[in-house]
Design brief:
about 250 residues, mainly alpha, 2 domains
Length: about 250
């Protein structure tokens, strides 16, 4: 009853503001009215200080990162997930098709699997890289994200940190690609392709491709985890998450 009464009061106040400012023609007045109405009617972490809100969003990203890393770093985490599976790059599709036609299909499949295995192994070591970047989120960033879309924090995080994360993630990817023998597989495929008549070796940056695809997969799964935290109370596994997202 109390909650319904509060909502009723807010709705009444919003209607009054709308009527009172509806006749104004200045953009600024319309903006003020809209902001006030949205502030009263939008579920949010009302009453919480900005630092708590910021900490809550960072917590959501931290928890989401741990879950995303856990999901993608297991065997088949990339390979068996159609949403993030690393496919044969566009630059190599002609070569791959040609090699399959002359009996190298098994090697082509092994190369594609190797890219995914490298990403899975690199993902297992991604948590500290992501957590460090999360810590740099500001109060202003957080307040703008709170009432955004289901993946607003992830989208912001991806936009602001992708370049930095890629620089830090690249050495991890390169190490794991070496561990799974991906460089050797790639060189063998290209040697076989170049030995065929009338073929030209494609220009392709293997390190860059697997690194970008690996990060993109992590961000994709992180976005799913953020959406789950926002929509599903059972996914809010810490007190801070429960407090900040209680209105969602």
């Amino acid at each position: 009853m109390k909650s319904a009464l509060v909502k009723g009061v807010f709705a009444g106040a919003a209607l009054t503001l709308t009527l009172g400012l509806g006749g104004c023609t200045e953009t600024g007045n319309r903006s003020i009215a809209t902001d006030l109405i949205n502030a009263m009617l939008t579920p949010s972490a009302a009453g919480l200080d900005q630092q708590t809100v910021a900490d809550g969003l960072k917590e959501a990203l931290r928890v989401g990162t741990e879950r995303a890393v856990g999901a993608t770093s297991q065997a088949g985490g990339f390979l068996n997930n159609e949403l993030i599976r690393i496919a044969m790059p566009e630059q190599l599709k002609t070569a791959a098709s040609t090699l399959r036609a002359v009996g190298f299909g098994g090697q082509v499949d092994a190369f594609e699997q190797g890219m995914n295995k490298a990403a899975e192994k690199a993902s297992a070591e991604a948590t500290p890289v992501f957590v460090d970047a999360i810590s740099e989120m500001t109060l202003a960033d957080a307040m703008g994200i709170l009432n955004g879309g289901d993946t607003a924090a992830t989208d912001y995080f991806r936009d602001k940190t992708s370049a930095t994360l890629k620089n830090r993630f690249m050495p991890i990817i390169e190490d794991k690609m070496g561990q799974v023998g991906l460089y050797q597989q790639y060189n063998q495929l290209m040697d076989a392709y170049n030995a065929l008549p009338l073929t030209t070796k494609p220009t392709f940056d293997l390190d860059n491709y697997v690194s970008e695809q690996g990060l993109d997969g992590l961000f994709t799964v992180l976005g799913q985890e953020e959406k789950n935290i926002r929509q599903n109370p059972a996914a809010r596994t810490t007190e801070l998450l429960q407090k900040v997202f209680a209105g969602n």
